[in-house]
Amino acid sequence: MSDDLTRDTILGGRVHLWQPRKGYRAGVDPIFLAAWVPAKPGQSVLDLGCGAGAACLSLAARVPGLSLTGLERQPLYAALARRNGAENGQQIEVVEGDLAQMPEALKQRVFDHVIANPPYFRRDRSLAGPDAAREGAMGEETPLADWVRAAAKRCRPRGYVSFIHRTERLPELLAAFDSCLGSLETFPLIPREGRDSQLSLVRGRKEGRAAFRLHAGLVVHSGPVHQTDGEDYTPEALGILRDAAPLGPEGR
């Protein structure tokens, strides 16, 4: 094992993930994103900013027979996504490039699902991190609205676009979705009962016409505070994070 990499397991050991020891490392966010995607066997998926492939592989662990494509601008993460796909028995086509200048390999293609876990933090309102790879994943360079437009362009008619982002930026994200997608849905992730949501999932449908839907959301942790050294996930969260259960009404 390289000293610069770790080989981790997610989804209760269903997925093994090589990722850098330092820099950006996948947490639970891509797993929740994958659980939110209403994919069916045989459909195609494009992950914008796929990193080491955590979201794609989590989705593939739940839904068999998907055609997986990732777009990643950092060569190290692109190489890890290919390696992780191969070692998990999943073929991921990883295209290196920036969505702000969509590579020719993707320009003429459309997908049943386009997913993204964009950088969370606007750097005109916060400080950049010291690690370049982590900063590339967490600090926003391309405006959030451009992420949504790029996703909508690559989505086939009646297909779905699914994002995860910080709840504080939900007004901006919903406005961007509403400009090019319909049938919008939002699903808040709530750290603990009685706490404010910090992360939210958003989904839109190309040419969708259904009314906006705000779901009741998911409480991630049990109890008012963290009281033990172990995990304290709620049963519903644990089903998603360990058993690859779907998130939302379908999972209930």
From TrEMBL:
Keywords, sorted A to Z: Methyltransferase, S-adenosyl-L-methionine, Transferase
Q: What Pfam families does this protein map onto?
A: MTS
Q: Specify the Methyltransferase small domain's residue ranges.
A: 33-121
Q: Which domain of life is it from?
A: Bacteria
Molecular function (Gene Ontology), one example: S-adenosylmethionine-dependent methyltransferase activity
One of the GO biological process terms: methylation
Sorted alphabetically, which InterPro entries does this protein's record hold?
DNA_methylase_N6_adenine_CS, SAM-dependent_MTases_sf, Small_mtfrase_dom, tRNA_Adenine-N(6)_MTase
* Protein name per Swiss-Prot or TrEMBL: Methyltransferase
Where does this protein come from, organism-wise? Answer: Pseudooceanicola atlanticus
